[in-house]
Structure formats: structure tokens, C-alpha cells
């Protein structure tokens, strides 16, 4: 996702980013280096060097910081970002269970009634063209049942 | 975090709720998103050169 425009508000102490998903906010409190009343933000821009997938800000002291769009999406609890993070976690769990268990890959495929191509696709943590449902099925075949934990926002 | 330039690549690392990540760009395009906690690729395929550069940055305490 590209950042179209970056603006900042010293009263609200946050950045506003114009993206294809609308306006996303990012607070100063999560920045490093942090701006202060003595060291305010001088300039902020969508960074072309990073394909406009991050923004860079410059403080009056000359210090510079860069924030990637993923950090902003995580702060704004973007559903697509959270889905990918969940799929990644489930895949890593399936990979570690497969190493732990003495069951062969063939046996798991038979349990799942699936093809080797589909099986290895599910085990690839860089592939996000799979559903949480398919991952739950794979984990169940590895004798691991997925449960849901509801957490209150911090 | 600030950008780190090494060997024609730009590195941006950050720590979030889902771990410690690093994004690697070359020619304005993301070539790799790497999980520094698990040492696995999140997106893209790592090359030996990039893995060497990550290791170098770790040794220099820049990540």
C-alpha cells in the first residue's frame, strides 16, 4: 500500500497518512526518535526511496526517523494486515508440529485428503493465498486444535 | 527507526505486537520482509547476500 500524503498535527501529537484505505493515524508516542516541544517536526514526506511504502520525518535537531506502512496498519488494526499476521503464525506452528511429530508428510496429506501441491502450499509461510479454515484443517491433521482467545485492546 | 543503507539495499526494522520485523528494499521495491524473532521470511525469498547483510547489522547492534 502506498502513502499518498503525510501531514502532522502537533496538538493531536499524531501523523495523518492519506492511503488507498483512507486516512490512517499514527501517534508520536510510537516514534523513535520522538519529537518534543523543544524538538518539533520540521518535515515529513512519503519516502520514494522505499516505494512510498513508508514515511520519513525530520526533526529540528536534524534527527531523522522512518515509519513503515505495516507499523501504521498494525496500530490501526487493519483487517488484511491482521489476517496475514495470523496466517503466518498458524503456518509457523504447523511447520514446528510437522518437525516434532514422527508422522510422514504423506500420512498428513492422506488425513487431509489433499494433494502434495496443496499441502506444501499451506506449509509455505510466505504464501498468503490460503484461508484460515485450510490452516485449521492442516493443524487438526497434526493433532493440534485451534481455539479462539478474545483479548481486550491495550 | 531510521533507514539503514547497505550494499544497494535499504533496511527498515521495527518491533510490533507480532514480533521484530525488517523490510528490505532495492530499487524502490520490497525484496524481502524478514522475521528477526523466528529468522524466517515473511514475504519474498532471501538471498545469501541479504542474509549476510542482516547478520552484519545484528553484529553492529543496529537491529
Descriptive overview:
The complex is a heterodimer of chains A (154) and B (63). By secondary structure, chain A is an alpha+beta fold. Chain A is built from five helices and six strands. Chain A has helices at 69-75, 79-100, 105-112, 116-122, 132-141; strands at residues 3-9, 14-19, 22-27, 41-46, 54-59, 64-68. In chain A, the strands form two sheets. A three-stranded antiparallel β-sheet of chain A has the order 1-2-3, covered by helices on one side. Chain B has 63 residues and is α+β, with helices and mostly antiparallel strands. Chain B has one domain (4-59). Chain B has one helix at residues 48-59; strands at residues 4-6, 9-16, 19-26, 29-35, 40-43. Chain B has a five-stranded antiparallel β-sheet with strand order 1-2-3-4-5, with no helix packed on it. In chain B, a hairpin with a 4-residue loop joins strand 4 (29-35) and strand 5 (40-43). Chains A and B meet through strand 6, helix 1 and helix 2 of A and strand 2, strand 3, strand 4 and strand 5 of B.
- The domain count of chain A comes to 2
Stretches of chain B where pLDDT is under 50 for at least 5 consecutive residues are none
What is the general shape of chain A?
Answer: elongated
Q: How many extended strands of chain A?
A: 6
Mean pLDDT figure of chain B: 91
Major sheet attributes of chain A: 3 strands, antiparallel
Tell me the β content of chain B: over 45%
The tally of beta strands of chain B, per DSSP, is: 5
Number of helices of chain A: 5
- End-to-end Cα distance of chain A, whole Å, is 26 Å
How can the largest sheet of chain B be summarized?
5 strands, antiparallel
Short description:
The complex is a heterodimer of chains A (154) and B (63). Chain A is an alpha+beta fold.
Secondary structure topology:
The complex is a heterodimer of chains A (about 150) and B (about 60).
Chain A: E1 3-9, E2 14-19, E3 22-27, E4 41-46, E5 54-59, E6 64-68, H1 69-75, H2 79-100, H3 105-112, H4 116-122, H5 132-141
Helix pairs in contact in A: 2-5
Chain B: E1 4-6, E2 9-16, E3 19-26, E4 29-35, E5 40-43, H1 48-59
Antiparallel strand pairs in B: 1-2, 2-3, 3-4, 4-5
Amino acid at each position: 500500500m502506498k502513502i499518498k500524503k503525510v501531514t502532522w498535527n502537533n496538538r493531536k501529537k499524531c501523523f495523518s497518512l492519506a492511503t488507498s484505505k483512507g486516512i490512517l493515524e499514527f501517534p508520536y508516542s510510537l516514534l523513535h526518535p520522538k519529537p518534543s516541544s523543544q524538538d518539533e517536526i520540521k518535515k515529513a514526506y512519503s519516502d520514494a526511496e522505499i516505494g512510498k511504502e513508508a514515511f520519513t520525518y525530520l526533526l529540528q535537531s536534524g534527527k531523522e526517523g522512518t515509519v513503515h506502512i505495516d507499523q501504521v496498519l498494525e496500530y490501526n488494526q487493519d483487517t488484511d494486515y491482521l489476517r496475514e499476521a495470523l496466517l503466518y503464525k498458524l503456518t509457523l506452528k504447523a511447520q514446528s508440529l510437522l518437525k516434532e511429530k514422527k508422522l510422514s508428510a504423506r500420512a498428513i496429506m492422506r488425513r487431509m485428503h489433499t494433494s502434495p501441491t496443496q499441502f506444501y502450499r499451506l506449509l509455505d509461510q510466505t504464501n498468503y493465498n490460503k484461508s484460515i479454515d485450510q490452516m485449521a484443517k492442516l493443524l487438526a491433521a497434526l493433532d493440534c486444535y485451534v481455539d479462539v482467545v478474545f483479548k481486550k485492546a491495550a | 527507526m531510521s533507514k539503514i543503507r547497505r550494499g544497494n539495499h535499504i533496511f527498515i526494522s521495527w518491533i510490533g505486537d507480532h514480533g521484530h520485523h525488517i523490510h528490505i528494499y532495492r530499487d524502490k521495491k520490497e525484496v524481502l520482509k524478514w522475521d528477526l524473532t523466528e529468522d524466517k521470511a515473511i514475504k519474498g525469498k532471501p538471498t545469501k547476500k541479504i542474509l549476510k547483510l542482516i547478520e552484519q547489522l545484528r553484529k553492529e547492534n543496529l537491529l
